[in-house]
Automatic annotation (TrEMBL):
SMART domains assigned: REC, Trans_reg_C
Molecular function GO labels: phosphorelay response regulator activity; transcription cis-regulatory region binding
Entry annotated with the keyword Ribonucleoprotein: no
Protein function: May play the central regulatory role in sporulation. It may be an element of the effector pathway responsible for the activation of sporulation genes in response to nutritional stress. Spo0A may act in concert with spo0H (a sigma factor) to control the expression of some genes that are critical to the sporulation process.
Classification via InterPro entries: CheY-like_superfamily (IPR011006), OmpR/PhoB-type_DNA-bd (IPR001867), Sig_transdc_resp-reg_C-effctor (IPR016032), Sig_transdc_resp-reg_receiver (IPR001789), WalR-like (IPR039420), WH-like_DNA-bd_sf (IPR036388)
Name the UniProt record assigns to this protein: Stage 0 sporulation protein A homolog
Any one of the GO BP annotations: regulation of DNA-templated transcription
UniProt xrefs under CDD domains: trans_reg_C
Gene3D superfamilies per UniProt: 3.40.50.2300, 6.10.250.690, Winged helix-like DNA-binding domain superfamily/Winged helix DNA-binding domain
SUPFAM superfamilies cross-referenced by the UniProt entry: C-terminal effector domain of the bipartite response regulators (SSF46894), CheY-like (SSF52172)
Gene Ontology cellular-component terms listed: cytosol; protein-DNA complex
Length: 221
């Protein structure tokens, strides 16, 4: 069972998160004192950390840097700080993801699931090969049969979501919400255009049938 450590000083939010994550099947620990957070991380060895920015004493940014000095545990910032500079700084100092409050529960759970999958792979550069297709997050490319296609940021995130839900039907609304929450502004028409462009690139690679459209339901690979 994956263990998640919550570092959040607002008791109401902390208890809400503990209940939510416990009900989702995770083993949950929560810091209630914030003077020895790095030591707590070392002692508990969590699989993922939910980290607020506004904390008593050292803020979440400094704590993230402290944790990164000895641990590669995925860190998801969950905070009310909602500027692009806050997000950029959090990711620059070692955060793996950034979600602002109030959070969307399905999106939060999906992002936690993705980070935990990344952590188990021991790297974040590539996803496992699927049906002969390889998606490289580091290079932003799709590879198949010795050929390679470059993806835009939006295309990369769409394929990332489909790859991490391989074998499942992914509703269009889930893709739209995932990209909106990733600060990529997209609507249903834009989604259709991006899917069309991805399919063109897949056809050029000789894998035009990788993405199936399930009419009235969504997409599946």
């Amino acid at each position: 069972m994956d263990k998640i450590l919550i570092i959040e000083d607002e008791e109401l939010i902390r208890e809400e998160l503990k209940t939510l994550l416990s009900n989702a099947g995770y083993l949950v620990e929560a810091a209630e004192e914030f003077g020895n957070v790095a030591e707590l991380v070392g002692a508990l060895a969590p699989d993922l950390i939910l980290l607020d920015v506004n904390l008593p004493g050292r803020d979440g940014y400094h704590l993230c840097a402290d944790i990164r000095s000895f641990s590669d545990t995925p860190i998801l910032f969950l905070t009310g700080r909602d500027t692009s500079m806050d997000e950029l700084y959090a990711l620059t100092i070692g955060g793996d993801d950034y979600i602002t409050k109030p959070y969307n529960v399905p999106i939060l759970l999906a992002r936690i699931k993705l980070l935990l999958k990344r952590g188990k792979r021991g790297e974040q550069a590539e996803l496992p090969e699927y049906k002969g297709m390889r998606l490289s997050l580091a290079a932003g490319t799709l590879s198949f049969g010795g050929r390679e296609a470059e993806l835009t940021k939006t295309e990369l995130k769409l394929m990332y979501y489909l790859f991490t839900h391989a074998g499942e039907i992914v509703p269009r609304l889930d893709l739209v919400e995932f990209l909106w929450d990733s600060q990529i502004h997209i609507d249903d028409n834009t989604l259709s255009v991006n899917m069309m462009r991805i399919r063109e690139k897949l056809c050029a690679l000789g894998a035009g049938n990788l993405i199936q459209t399930k009419r009235g339901m969504g997409y599946k690979i």
